[in-house]
Amino acid sequence: MPRTPILSASGIRTAALGIIDRHGLDGLSMRKLAAELGVQAASLYGHVATKDDLLHDLAGEILEKVDVTGFADGDWRHGLTMCARSYRAALAEHPNIVPFLAYGPAHREASLRRLDALHGGLVAAGWSRREATMIAASLMYLVFGAALSSFSSGFSEDQALYRDRYPNLDKAHLLPAVAEELDHDSFELALAAFVDGLALRLPR
Question: Origin, by domain of life (predicted)?
Fold first, then answer.
């Protein structure tokens, strides 16, 4: 007789994330997840209460890859830069779940621990608590803006669309071919400008 697959929390998360990666957030349901795992939907509820709880578990797993250790040496610029780069990289691995993550830390332990380290590192460096909150929020805008869209991929490769009507965009058709490189460099430019600009505002 066929055996019922043994379920585990990690296996459920892996399968759920696979569905989201392939079909987007709307493609995930407890019924589809159960079918993916070869079990009945009722079997899942011994491990996760609701789909929303499962999404929070997935978010926590992804956010474990965000590195906030750079604040430990007291260099807030280094900490902020490491946090931003690792955050963008973590989101890039699973872009379809980014809209769920973009709503803020909610009650997610992994997110709150990292936010606590970021906030503490900034305050220790001399920023006020209000400024630290604003910097953390601004960093999220930067990271999630980069994760939610690709500026370069949004152009057509048809040169005729731009050449005659938009003379300053006569090379825009070349952007999709170098989208990954240009998006990376654009993020780095924005991040450097953000951190350098903040440094000028820090009270001495």
Answer: Bacteria
